[in-house]
Amino acid sequence: MTKARGTLSPVSVRRDTLSPNQLGKRERILDAARRVLLEGGPAACTSRALAQESGLTKGLIHYYFGNVEEIVDEAMRGLLAELFDRLRATADRHDDPAERFWAVIEDYVSVYSEEPGLTLLWFDYWVRTTRAGRREEGEAVNDGLIALLTELLSDASVADPDARARAVLAYVMGVLVRAEVHPLEFSELRREIASLNGVVA
User: How many CB atoms are closer than 10 A to CB 32?
Assistant: First the structure.
């Protein structure tokens, strides 16, 4: 059977069997994948593109990962972990619950402003994983953010924090997509979100 374009071998080497040097090469592939994903999305992340971006051979990529889908998933998880770490650090810098909520929202929006391509990448990845019957991969992004926002709104004594967190996230995600064409000042966005979340603007 012919392998689909962009796929590699179905079996990858186990991480716990790798030397520090080999782990470094594996991380180099993931770093290259993050750059390729941000530039061109999942469709651009082929074994050829990864080899070119990482400076490694397709054979080495084949050795460290079972297929390109595995690389994309792990690279996206890495981007998500970095995002959550940043937002948690932002929250930890504020004592007042309302200030903590707004600081996290502003920083969340800033992440997408600072990293061109990230907004479309998340949506593209979400759509692709859903169509492939792997909704849990794309939903992990939403679930983690909803949990964080629910926690922040609960600390701010907002009624029904889970429902409001979902409403806020849905709205902000829509704004982020719209901002690809029509950027919105955060001060304006804050006033609009205040009508959804029960936290004083």
Answer: 22
Contact 35, 72 (CB under 8 A): no
- List the domains of the chain with CATH numbers: 15-66 (1.10.10.60), 76-197 (1.10.357)
Instruction: Give residue 178's pLDDT.
Output: 82
Which tokens in the block code for residue 93?
Answer: 């810098």
Residue corresponding to tokens 């759509």: 127
- Dmax (CA) for the chain in angstroms is 60
Q: What is the pLDDT of residue 16?
A: 66
> What is the torsion angle, in degrees rounded to the nearest 10, for the CA atoms of residue 132, residue 169, residue 93 and residue 159?
-130
Quickly tell me which residue has 């029509």 as its tokens: 182
Phi, psi (deg, nearest 5) at residue 161: -60, -35
Which pLDDT belongs to residue 10? 39
The mean pLDDT of 123-137, rounded to a whole number, is 89
Closest CA to 79 of 115, 45, 129: 115
> Which pLDDT belongs to residue 3?
38
The pLDDT score that the predictor gives to residue 9 is 37
Distance CA 130, CA 111 (A): 24
